[in-house]
Amino acid sequence: MAPPVMAARAWLADHVPRPDRPLLNMSQAAPTAPPPEGLRRAIAAAALDDVSAHLYGPVLGLPALRAALAAQWAADYGGTIRADQVAITAGCNQAFCAAIATLAGPGDQVILPYPWYFNHKMWLDMAGVEAVPLACGPDLLPDPDRAAALITDRTRAIVLVTPNNPCGVEYPAALVRAFSALARDGGPALILDETYRNFDARPLPPHDLFDHPDWDARHIHLYSFSKAFRLTGHRVGALIASPARLAEAEKFLDTVTICPNQLGQRAALWGLQNLRQWLAGERAEILARRDAMAAGFAELPGWRLLGCGAYFAYAAHPFGGDAETVARALLAEQSVLTLPGTMFAPEGDAPARRQIRFAFANADRAGIAALFDRLAAFTAARGGGQP
Length: 387
Ligand SMILES: Cc1ncc(COP(=O)(O)O)c(C=O)c1O
What we know:
By secondary structure, this protein is of the alpha/beta class. The chain is 41% helix and 16% strand. Strand 5, helix 7 and strand 6 form a beta-alpha-beta unit.
């Protein structure tokens, strides 16, 4: 199978939208607007005035950024998080790859709840690590007891994404704690990808894992600056773990990128220092869009909203065809680009054939209204959404 993002791009290459129906691209979870002006000016100033911004830097990232992130996370989550437990990486995807490099190799296993974030699955495949699929329940949450039953002497980690891509669900703190209990006493490590943590609808903290004095013994936290500060192209993320694990990750990071992007790191640091209020506004806007998506699906005949949060609405379509056929027809007829559930699940998974992911972060209220007009027309053209 082609990587999903590339596959969707190939569909687009063959698509010519009607002039009265411009493309609604709900395929990718990436902000398309630039960072706020202050941040762009800070990047420009660093590029002009800071010679070190053009040179190799420390493999694990700028000390000032590591310290600022540690302080912010400790304030947000509670507990103790030190700068030497934080590494800056070239995006959260690289943080995941680096974490896996410290944990598992060919022949080892990692438990991956699905629907999954496809880049996690792709990296495990490429690393020769067996991704052991754990089907989520109808509420799209993974069950710790079912995960426990999958653990073998080859299991090195369990990966959770919360708020979730692709499902949009926020994992309850008690669920995260139950998974962390599996990781205790020599069990597999718990990798928590919290790329969308800034858009969680709940008050802080979303879980209490950092409260444990030895949290870094088994818990690995991943973060991305791509979404919060719209820095996708600058490639800045974070890997938060024990100093010993970071020393192992350092070998991986040194050989792959030598250091994270220097301008991107300065941008992330400036953002942490200056964009708290701005980010609160971004969060409020994303939560309003989430509400608009939920309201739209509530009115749409036949469709069922399964999860909604972070940047995503995950819905079951009411048609007989499989999700890819529906997604391609939706693009051809209504110029709405989405990704089918089959891109987030093991081959042949039956529920995924009914599921579609809508990445709504770039759609304003008018765009969301247009989406539901088009979905209503698409559904009516198929007899009102009866299977
Ligand atoms: C769950 C998850 N992790 C990681 C990433 C990648 O983030 P980055 O741009 O920091 O590599 C994404 C991007 O869509 C994501 O959804």
